[in-house]
Amino acid sequence: MNADNMVGRTVAGYHLAEYIGEGGTATVYRAEHPDRGRAAVKILRPRLAQDPIAVKRFLREAEYGARVKHPNIVQTYDYGATDGLHYLALEWAQGEPLAEFINRSGKLAPLLVATIVEQLGAALGCAHKAGIIHRDLKPANIMYDPATQTAKLLDFGIARDAELNPEERLTRAGFFVGTLQYVAPETLSGELVSEQADVYSLATIAYYLLTQELPFTGKSPRELFQQLLTKPPVTLNQAVKGLRFPGPVEAAVMHGLDRDLSKRSKTVDEFATELCTAVRGGAARRGFLASLFGKGGE
């Protein structure tokens, strides 16, 4: 299928105005709607329309997204099937994927990282209260608007219901889901995971935003897989030579990355609160010392 051949068509009232991109299962368009205005519309690839598992996963993304309402989650407008096409209409989020922003800007200031983590923690906390575990947190699945410093979570494509019966799973036992650089070690077994898996992924995102490095250094999927299972992560203050963070900031990030679930932050709110308190407390202290002694006070 030519990726552009649906531009100009109208699907369920959404006029497909521009091709944006595509993934493994869907093509994304910028669309216009007479009531909602600009929207993003995902269309399941026609070749997958006859695959019941692919259709069910596509609908699950829509259903989970529709269940969670939060200002830091891209809103799901509606979804369904029409003229043989399965579609999902979403809020048009301003900005760009966080992955693209950081690739262009480099590592971020700790105060900005705290702002982003605080927003994502609140969004994930809302999802968890609705019984949904995201399982695929990564900078590519976060929209970020630098003008307003607003982050919005998207893509519930492999999320799961925490209350789902094991026999209803769409993932085969023994296979993990997610993106290897950001998944929690316990995910690699393919077993059901708790919201602490999202805590780990959020901590990995924080680590990456602060350093533009990842806590494991494996260069191949096989090497990375083995490190996740057997080695501790590189500590935050060892990630980049010469780059140092206050002890409480490093401790907060590493609490979120602990392989031992009894030691890892229990909830996304707990992790975000610890990190934000550490970052903002340190900034306030530096500002106070600077006011007493001038810029060279420390």
Description:
The chain is α+β, with helices and mostly antiparallel strands and 298 residues long. It folds into 2 domains: 10-91, Phosphorylase Kinase, domain 1; 96-285, Orthogonal Bundle (Transferase(Phosphotransferase), domain 1). Helix content is 36%, strand content 18%. The protein is built from 7 helices and 11 strands. The chain has helices at residues 52-67, 98-105, 110-129, 196-211, 221-230, 247-256, 268-293, and strands at residues 10-11, 14-22, 26-33, 37-44, 76-82, 85-91, 96-97, 132-133, 142-145, 150-153, 160-161. A 6-stranded antiparallel sheet has the order 1-2-3-4-6-5, covered by helices on one side. The chain has a 3-stranded antiparallel sheet with strand order 7-9-10. Strand 9 (142-145) and strand 10 form a beta hairpin. It starts with 9 loop residues before the first strand and ends in a 5-residue tail after the last helix.
Index terms:
globular, 11 strands, Transferase(Phosphotransferase), domain 1, 298 residues, single chain, 36% helix, alpha+beta, 7 helices, 2 domains
At the fold tier of CATH, the topology name of the largest domain is Transferase(Phosphotransferase), domain 1
Supply the CATH superfamily name of the largest domain. Answer: Transferase(Phosphotransferase) domain 1
Instruction: Supply the number of structural domains.
Output: 2
Task: Give the proportion of residues in helices.
Answer: 25-40%
Approximate shape: globular
Question: How confident is the prediction overall: mean pLDDT?
Answer: 86
Strand content: 15-25%
Widest beta sheet: strand line-up? 1-2-3-4-6-5
Biggest β-sheet strands, sense, barrel: 6 strands, antiparallel
Q: Sketch the topology as an H/E string, one letter per element.
A: EEEEHEEEHHEEEEHHHH
CATH class of the largest domain: Mainly Alpha
